[in-house]
Amino acid sequence: MNINLIKSGATTSTKRAAYYEKLATQLDKLYHDIDSGKLGADAKTGDFYVGRKAVKDKYPKFWYNYKHGENNKMAAGTYNFTIEQGATFSRVLTLKENDSVMNLTGYSAASQMRQSHDTSTVAGTITCTISNASAGQITLSMTSTATGNIEEGIYVYDIEITSGAGSVTRILQGKVTLTPQVTR
Fold it and tell me: Of 12, 46, 111, 140, which is the most exposed, with the fewest CB atoms less than 10 Å away?
């Protein structure tokens, strides 16, 4: 898999979508806010508005100033994938910057899976190895024992690289579906 860091990947709306409640829940809150008379200025105290505002505040819209080159921060890409419980997992990522391979000499990488973005409990750790620094390659792996110890389900993950100077960049994020093992 190639990841080109010039591409924006996750947009503000995709980041927000991961935190918004299900549409049915949002509409139910909106109904109850309206039913209880929370209109006008009072609407800003209702569950619907408060919940949406919290997510919008957490992920404000990102604007790039082309004239002065300010805020040239890239967004992490989004990639969802499947890990099979009890099976060995391995993927090789190639990082590119402006369509050229990114030299990862002096970098380290890390990745964790969790039930949700907010939980402090790590469901699994994906081992990240800079397997070929000059070719921009990172190998992601988990042993069959490690995948076997994780309960089936859908998890969130991200992958971060850290430069030798300590600068951390999230390069990829998304959901991992862990499918159940049958043969034991």
Answer: 12
